[in-house]
Amino acid sequence: MAELQEGSKRDRTGVELFAGAGGLAMVVHRAGFRPLLFNEFAKRACETLEANVAVRVPASERPAVPGPGERVPLVAGDVQELDMRYLAGRVDVLAGGPPCQPFSLGGVAKGDEDKRNMFPQMFRAVRQIRPKAVICENVRGLLRPSFKPYFDYIMRELELPFEERAKGATWQQHDAYLLERLKREPDDPTERYDIVMMPVNAADYGVPQIRNRVIIVAFRRDLKVDLALFRRLVQPTHSETALMRSMADGGYWERHSDVPDHVRERVMARLPATLPMGDGLRPWHTLRDAIAGIGDNKPLPEVPDEWLDRTEHLLGGFTEHIGWPGARIYDGHTPNELDRPAKTVKAGVHGVPGGESVMLLDELVADRMPPTESGISTGT
Questions:
Q1: Catalytic residue positions?
Q2: Where is the active site (predicted)?
Q3: Which of 235-249, 281-295, 306-320, 349-363 has the highest mean pLDDT?
């Protein structure tokens, strides 16, 4: 993450709300935008940002605008207390993933009624900063039919962020007002945004993980961005169809010639009898692809045979997960498989479900964290 401190030839700038450990911030930076401000509430995430690129600033103070190469101010705490007006006119991109628990399939899903719904704070930031573009990332649960009216309202509010909700008005009343207001051309094109909403799967862009999200991108109307061109530029590059066809024609197995025959046969047996037509995309990247590409293609460390032995489980006992003594294998246990992208590892009030946090390496071995730029992080 040290690269976040570097300037770019064109000094384009960004602000990151709900920054987490900095994943989206790294993406925005790699696209050419130098961060001016981070905000995050979670203690451990703030510690991660500080350890890499940020310097903590009290919420009561106005952060200095960092120059190229300087550490990025981090305001740790409630975004509702953050005043960003000092950055008005200085920010190209406002990015953030408002807390997703209100809309997540893995949560209670109270939606707009949940006090953790922070979309209104994104819109307040737009009014204060007036960025040229906005990027919001959230869970696919936003598109559930039960949330559709509120999701449509979110889209309209981002399109007209300067039309604030009147005090005491419900979101439904405000939405009705926005619907009428959208029928007229804006008096000031800098106060209206053109919106692109994209349901995405990370695997469709070459990430070795199935991770479904909703990305909302907004461009300020006065910039006259070609939205049709933008949509073409962000089309998927990889597909499950291409992976299945690569397995069927042998290309995948040529890359992994050391895979045992019984493993290859098991994977091939699950392919459909009739494969879909080719779509011209590249194959999904599997866990096997990702692991083979780490470092200098070093082989995986030897795994003791007893760790791979399911005899105890089949006889009614259980084999412990590596790194998590006492965790049980159970009927319906569905670990990650090497010849598929990883599943999304869920977090919730009951911790990480065991079926999500392990990998099937031709037999059973422990899960590993995603690869980092310096190698593989160990842990569960």
A1: 100
A2: 100
A3: 235-249
